[in-house]
Design brief:
The chain has about 120 residues and is mostly helical. It has one domain. It has two helices and no strands. The longest helix has about 110 residues. The N and C termini lie far apart (about 125 Å).
């Protein structure tokens, strides 16, 4: 919204209406020119800012994607290690359980056979 320059009544009296009105129009023209130049400069700066912001966001996005890919690889490796470790521990644990069960079964059958043998030989 343009600001219209207005001069005092003394100015009009001293220089006359024609010169004073011409001066006022010149001030308004200069003001409009400066406003247009400022608008163009602001649009240019905003375009530069927008381009730079887009570039920086793209760089940031690429960095985050790289970090997430590294994180994903690290987690996959750790999960694979954990899987291998758990598989080995489970295998060892099951082998130990199998051995204990076999001992208990052997002890149960031996004591059962001794008991049965005692019953048969006693009779």
């Amino acid at each position: 919204m343009p600001v219209t320059a207005k001069l005092s009544q003394k100015f009009y009296e001293k220089f006359g209406d024609e010169i004073t009105n011409e001066l006022v129009e010149w001030f308004n023209a200069v003001d409009a020119t400066y406003r247009a130049d400022l608008r163009e400069l602001n649009e240019l700066n905003f375009s530069r800012f927008d381009a730079k912001l887009g570039e920086r966001l793209a760089e940031s996005d690429a960095r985050w994607e790289r970090r997430l890919a590294e994180f994903d690889v690290t987690w996959e490796r750790r999960i694979a290690e954990l899987h291998t470790q758990l598989k080995a521990e489970l295998s060892t644990g099951l082998h130990g359980l199998e051995t204990k069960l076999l001992r208990w079964m052997f002890g149960f059958w031996v004591s059962t056979l001794i008991g049965l043998g005692a019953l048969f030989f006693r009779a």
